[in-house]
Design goal:
Elements (H helix, E strand, L loop, with lengths): L1 E2 L8 E4 L8 E4 L6 E6 L8 E7 L7 E12 L4 E7 L8 E3 L8 E9 L6 E8 L6 E11 L6
Antiparallel strand pairs: 1-11, 2-5, 3-4, 4-11, 5-10, 6-9, 6-11, 7-8, 7-10
Protein name: EGFL6 protein
Organism: Pardalotus punctatus
GO cellular component, one term: membrane
């Protein structure tokens, strides 16, 4: 497995230059490193911020599972979507609010077919709310199918 988390991960993360705002590091409650977050007050409604995970050296015709922690905290905070590079129009994963403000786990299957997925984009869309944040942490890439819960 490959650790792509932000504080100590080995993966390459890039901010999108063509979006409306950047994701920013935020300190973890436990004080051990940081996660990436978009506070609710950044930008205007429907503005987008994209953070791209560059994937290199994935074997063709292989399955991978991208596992990550996420949190949507606050009323009407917005949406979090995930897009593999070869499916720019349709997100493979989307959440628009949490039942509570707890961290949850998201999983995405990535299949390396003839077309190579060379990146995965985490996209935050600003909602109407003024409090809370959208956060992503503990991003890990494992080979094979996603495990059942």
């Amino acid at each position: 497995s490959v650790d792509c988390s932000f504080s100590r991960g080995v993966c390459d993360w890039k901010q999108d230059a063509d979006d409306d705002f950047d994701w920013n590091p935020a300190d973890r409650d436990r004080g051990d490193g940081y996660y990436m977050a978009v506070p609710a007050f950044v930008g205007h409604k429907k503005d987008m911020g994209r953070l791209k995970l560059l994937l290199t050296d994935l074997k063709p015709k292989s399955s991978y599972c991208l596992i990550f922690s996420y949190r949507l905290a606050g009323d009407k905070v917005g949406k979090l979507r995930v897009f593999p590079a070869n499916k720019k129009n349709a997100p493979v994963w989307e959440k628009n609010k949490g039942k509570d403000e707890k961290w949850r786990t998201g999983k995405i299957e990535i299949f390396q077919g003839a077309e190579t997925t060379n990146s995965v984009t985490f996209e935050s869309e600003r909602g109407k709310g003024k409090t809370g944040e959208i956060g992503v942490d503990n991003v890990i890439l494992i080979s094979g199918q996603c495990p059942e819960d």
